[in-house]
Structure formats: C-alpha cells, structure tokens
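CORE FACILITY INTAKE
Project code: CF-77B
Contact: R.S. (postdoc)
Sample description: multi-component assembly, two entities in total
Requested service: structural model of the whole complex
Turnaround: standard
Below are the sequence entries exactly as provided by the requester. Do not edit them.
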Amino acid sequence: MANQNIEQNTDHSEVELQAMNVKKPSPWKDFYKRLKRNKAALIGFYTIVFLSIVSIVGPFLLSMDPSDVDVINKFSRPSAEHWFGTDHMGRDIFTRIVYGMKYTLGVGFGSVFLGAIMGVPLGIVAGYYGGRIDSFIMRLIDILLAFPGILLALAIVSILGGSLVNVTIAVAIYAIPGFARIVRGSTLAAKKLEYVDAIRALGSSDLRIIFKHILPNVSSPVIVNATLYIASAILTAAGLSFLGMGAQPPMPEWGAMLNDGRDYIFDAGYIAFFPGMAIVIVVLAFNIFGDGLRDALDPKLKN
Amino acid sequence: MSTNESILEVTDLRTSFFTEGGEVKAVDGVTFDVPAGKTLGIVGESGSGKSITAMSILQLISHPGKIKGGEIKFRGKNLLDLSEKEMRKIRGNQISMIFQEPMTSLNPTYTVGQQIRESYKIHQGLGKKEGSKRAIEMLKLVGIPSPEKRLDQYPFELSGGMRQRVMIAMALACKPDLLIADEPTTALDVTIQAQILELIKELQDELGMSVVMITHDLGVVAETCDYVAVMYCGKVVEYADVRTLFKNPRHPYTVGLLKSLPRSDRDQEELTPIKGTVPSPDEMPVGCRFAPRCPFATNLCHEKLPSLDDVGDGEQIRCWIYTDEWNGDPGVKVYEPERTTEG
C-alpha cells in the first residue's frame, strides 16, 4: 500500500525525468564556453599559456646564453641577428627576455600561491567562527593593510636581503590581506546558507564543513583574485628589482633589465623598451584574463 | 502527560539571543513530550519560537544565540549534558532534521549521491561503493524514480518536490529514531505538499520513528499529527492530542487560530482573525503573553503569567481561565467554540 502510493506520487515526474536526461556539458566545457564569449579574456588566456610554454621550452631553442657578453656588439640596434638588439654589455636582449620569463612568472605564481595558502585559511577561520577569533585575525590583517604595498615589500626585502626568493615572500605577505578579506566575506555568506545548517544537522564536524562545504563555495572569488593579483605581484617584483632590491645581476629579470637600460634611455631606448613591453604584455594578459574569469565564474551572469 | 513512553521530553527549555538591544527570549520555558512512534506538531505564528525550539533540540543554535537552561531528554539522556562530539554522533544518526527550503538546503556544488553518502561516511564510515548502494536504496524508499541516474545529478537539475525527497533521504539515511521536520512543505506547492506529508507518514510507519512536525499550517497538523503543542511568544500555551485540540480548543489563542481557519466540517459565515499583532520582544507583556490580544483578558491576565497546568486527559493549558483563581466572566470557563461560530 505504501509503495503503491509512492509510485503514484511520482508518476508526473517521468516527463521531468526525460527532460533531465539531456546530456549536460562538463563543468570545464561549460566554463570554457562562457570564457569564449569574452574575446579579450580569451586572448589574455592564450597569451599566458603561450608565455608559459615559451618560458619552459624557449631556453632550449635559443643558441645564445643570457649572460654571454659580446663587447664588440654592444648597443647594437634590433637586427636579424639580435632581434631586440643588445645591451650595454653586448648581451642579447631577446635571449634575456625569454630566460627572464620564468622568473617573472615564477614570482607571480609563487607569491600568489603562498599568499593564498596563508590568507585563505585565515579568512575562513575568521568568517566561520566569528566573535573574538574573527576580531583578532582581522585586526592583524588590518595592520598588514596599513602599509602601502611596495613599502611593505621594500621593508621585508631589506630585512631578509635582496633576492628573488625574498621578493616572492615579501609580495606573498602583502597578498595575505586581500585573500583573507575576500574569503572571510564569502564565508560569512556561505555559512548562513541553509545547507550548511542541514549538513550540521547531519552530524558533520566543523572541519568537514569548512573544507567540504564552504571552501568550494569561496573558491571562485579566490581564483579571480589570484589571477588579478598575479599581475600586480609581477609589477611589484619588477619594481623591486628595478630599485635593485630584487633580482641581482646578472640575472635576466625584467625589472633589473629595465634598470640596466635606464642610463641609455635616450641613446638606446630599446634596451629598456623591450623588457618594459614584456612586463606590460604579461600584466595586461593576466588582468584581462582575470576580468573574464570573474564574469565566467559568476553564476549570476550565466547565459 | 501521555500514557505512552516518551522518546523526547523537553522540560523548561530556554533559548535566548543576546543582541545589542539586549536579551531576546526566543524560547522561554518550553515543555513538551514526544511519545515514541508518534507525531507531535508544534504550531505557532512566525516568531513564536518553534524553529528555535527545533534547532535547540539538536543544539544547532549559533552565536549570538544560547541555550540558557532546561532539559532535553532523549531516551532518558539529557542532550544538554553531552559534549559537542557526542552531540555530533546523535545528529543525523539518531535525530535528524529536514528544513523548510529544499531549494537551498542542498549544497549546489555536490551531486545528490555525494550528499546522501555524506551521512554514511560520517556515521558509519562507509566508502563510495557501499555508500552509493545505500543511497540508491534510500532514494527508492523516498519514491524517486530511476535513482541510479539521480545519484549523479546536481540539485539544480531537480524540482522542488524532488529536492525535498532527497533531503528526506539524507535525513533518514541512518534510520534515526526521531525526525524533526521544520516546515517541510511550506516552500512547496499544494499537490507536492500532500505528497511529501504522505511520504513522511509512510516512512514513519516503515521505520518506526517519531516525528516533530513544526508548522504554522493547522491543516498540516490535522493531517499528520497525533499530539499538538501550540506555541505563542516562546511559550507553549496548549498541549493536547490532535482530536481534543480541534474538537475542543481551550486556550483563547488556539480558539482564535481555529476561528481564522476555513473549515469544511462546519458551517461558517466568515473567518475571524485574531486582533492585534505578536508583541515585539522588547515590549513583551509581564503577564500572559496573549493578554493584549485576548478577548477575555482580565487584570489578573495582564499582571501575572499563568503556568502550564494539567487539565486532565493529558491536556495542558497555560491560561488563567482554567484555574481556580479565575475571577473574570464565569461563562468562558465552559467555552464552546461551535456555539460562538453558529451564534
């Protein structure tokens, strides 16, 4: 009797059922489809992919070494032999830019990754537990935020010593507040959702709720913030190297190369122009990709 | 109270919220029993504290709310004495809860299967394979066609009624002894409402569990409950078995509720709403909470809070009219609602 009733109850949903059997696109395909609608973001995405490949494969394809000094050919203008010309020591600028790519991307990804690893848990804990824990964590974050970014990075690098690794750490520390605040906000919203109550009513522990049910819901703002932050991390790192606080010579870091070209900017502008252009392109690529990503990951803008 | 053995005995439960404006007593000395295998309905207006009562039983009250006192005895054990860890073992395993909004009570980022398996993972440590097998059984039990396919679907692919069935499957996965249903049908349309209520009833018989049905809908109470606790402003004002309550409501608030409900079994000229509104927490009357809206209220009602007293036949009422101290109209003591609606 009981079963009969249940069957009767659900008869109507057969139609619904058939409608649902239409094949659904995989999340990745769906995401790519939405990203594709934003042409600029797509260009940014492919630029990043292309540059990443170049940074890995490029050094193996080039005949010259970034530190090869060719005094006779110093200050040569861009030519078939030296595509971007040579600098004041006769080093091939194109080769140096290709070699320098991995440092730039490395600092960008590395610092954002480190920043996220530290900032996301802080934000989640603050948002989830609230109260005094929240106040304590957020005041610490406020202290970090009180320093202008480059100044904080400068201070950290001057304490730790000038090297690319220390620049990465410095930029990562500056990235913490951004991640913590974004994640805290999303966690505050996510923990009010009824399904978090429902899952607690099923006997889930706090840790399980945080990692399984809240983290996935805060992941998209984190990804978008990370992408956009990579751009500013690259800029900050290049700036520190330009000031001589980051990469040390003869490392082909773009910011340091920019600094090398500074003295010859009127006579041999290409020495500074090409590394500068490289920075602009990478930063622009990450920025427009990040913007597109935000739109693509926003469920409200779906369709 | 009842002659049956009780699975849940709530005594003088008090839950408050500590806001900037001061303490708000959301649940203020609530007492009721849930007889084993039966359904207790908790009825009341919005803000009467019925949902908070439910959340308090599972201790799901979060900051700034706090359970201030009382006793929640589940199978003779006071739940308020348990640690959070012990409490987690009870949630979803021995006492489960289903929520009002099937649209938001499921995590949109996980499939139906993953969410039902969660119960088995938490309480029985089952892996994916065994968990899926049980999940399919549960989906079948709650009347979802082709459950194997449903397992890999996301909540957004299901209709409201289907989602509520999935919620029920999740809640009942570990065969709990007590199910708390917090307005399980409010968000559903009428035909689906009837189906879900029927389903809960069937599963109750099949699994032999007790149910606490929280609702503001007296129709739902009449259909599903064995006993009813009527709540007003954080207090139980009347507790009775469902027949007695509908046939012979005694508390003026209950009478008012019933008079504002269209009924098919009686001739009714028009509906009579209860005058006034629920008092806000910061201007709660010192006497009977219902006194400002009660047509029979006397000075006594305004000055002193009546207690919840047994009036025989397992019925309890919180009203001065049914006490010896009553000094108002002696006629209302034998108050017959039928007579007034006809006259």
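Facility notes:
- Residues 112 and 150 of chain B are 7 Å apart (CA to CA).
- The longest helix of chain B spans residues 190-207.
Invoice: internal transfer
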